[in-house]
Amino acid sequence: MERTLSIIKPDAVAKNVVGKILTRFEDAGLRVATTKKIQLSQADAEAFYAVHKERGFFADLVSFMISGPVVVSVLEGENAMAKNRELMGATNPKDAVAGTIRADFADSIDANAVHGSDSLENAEIEINFFFAQREIF
Ligand code: ATP
Ligand code: MG
User: Fold this and answer.
1) What is the pLDDT of residues 3-32, one digit of tens each?
2) Strand order of the sheet with strand 114-116?
């Protein structure tokens, strides 16, 4: 059984669509193994997105991710990583297929509603970034 990390970003939390987004995961056969709402610090966001630190959008990405609380979850199921990425839709909501989370809830490439791990290796790193094993069921 695969596990992946999901973040419902500050824009979607502010829009009050946390339940709607978690329901999409459940309706697609993924199980929420754990979830919590947290406020990231600047250091947290910089560490989490460290792979992007040389990119021009890094400072904006970090300030967006700390602009309000986020909901982080571990999703579990068959092909959880790829299934979550499919449910999310393209990074830029303008390119996201109709019916995906980003097409329905995101406003821009910055405020794009959700994050999902992009490989099984990163999923494990990202899950351990936010959760202890004893918090995941
Ligand atoms: P995420 O990692 O948040 O799940 P992603 O994997 O679809 O999204 P990445 O390429 O990992 O996209 O980029 C991380 C985040 O950085 C994106 O979600 C987006 O908010 C922001 N981002 C990516 N590319 C750009 C860009 N060209 N301009 C502005 N922001 C961008
Ligand atoms: Mg990514």
Assistant:
1) 999 999 999 999 999 999 999 999 999 999
2) 31-38, 70-77, 2-8, 114-116
Cβ of 112 less than 6 Å from ligand 1: yes
Say what the pTM is.
0.98
Distance 137 CA to ligand 2 centre (A): 25
CB-based contact 94:106 (threshold 8 Å): no
Joined tokens for residue 13: 């939390």
Judged on CB neighbours under 10 Å (0-12, 13-18, 19+), 106 is buried
Report in angstroms the alpha-carbon separations of 76 from 64, 82, 93: 27, 11, 25
The pLDDT mean for the chain works out to 98
Q: Whose CA is nearest to atom 10 of ligand 1?
A: 91
- Supply the Cα-derived Rg of the chain in whole angstroms: 14
- The answer, yes or no, to whether any atom of ligand 1 lies below 6 A from the CB of 89, is no
Smallest CA separation from ligand 1 atom 5, residue: 91
Q: Does 52 participate in catalysis according to the annotation?
A: no
